[in-house]
Amino acid sequence: MSRLFEAPARLVFAAFTQPELLVRWYGAQGWRLVGCDVDLRVGGRWRFESQGPDGTRMAQAGVYRQIDPPHRLVFTELFDDQSYPGETLVCHEFTELAGRTTVTTTLLYATAEGRDTVLRYPMTRGIGQSFTRLAELLRSTTTTTRGEHQ
């Protein structure tokens, strides 16, 4: 999957790794992060807890494997109520050209069965909605000279 964002890679990378930004865009329409823990270091853990419009909760977590800001982020992912076997390896590549950044995401499932199960879900629609929220956030976010996001 890939998506172009109208923002520099350092800001897009920050949106994928800083809880104060993640809670502002992560999740499909109607979903929001109600818990967001990030220990951004190789071997560090992350955990997101989302709540849907009907109150349904979903949690996922993993371990950071590679962190190369603002170019690459690799981590494992496992849902609390996972319906397919094994951890997924997620790789985000951030490629900037003239102040615009393409995020290319590769998902490697533990098994072909797991991949096929996920492909039957409305995952593409949900990620698309989430990335639309991210694009809106990036348009409205500025970074101060001290690196703080507003």
TrEMBL record:
InterPro entries: ASHA1/2-like_C (IPR013538), START-like_dom_sf (IPR023393)
The name this protein goes by in its record: SRPBCC domain-containing protein
SUPFAM superfamilies linked: Bet v1-like (SSF55961)
Family membership noted in the UniProt record: Belongs to the AHA1 family.
Domain of life per record: Bacteria
Residue span, Activator of Hsp90 ATPase homologue 1/2-like C-terminal domain: 7-138
Any Pfam family matching the protein: AHSA1
